[in-house]
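Tokenise the fold.
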Amino acid sequence: MVKQKNNLAAKVKEEQALRSSLPALSRQIPELAKIRAEITVKEIEESAGANRNTIKCICESWPATTT
């Protein structure tokens, strides 16, 4: 049980370090998506004030998820 706790703590720490190294827009998009189950590029563009092509490039670089 202690080993599992330590492994989880290490993973959380790695994820926090990764998130802090991302550009602001890359951190902001998942936060916007948490508010809703689905979000469009247009909604991200309006909320973040970012360029549509920049948003598309960022989203295309992420791994695909299935629901």
User: Anything to note?
Assistant: Helices lie at 2-21, 24-35, 41-48, 52-61. Residues 24-67 form one domain.
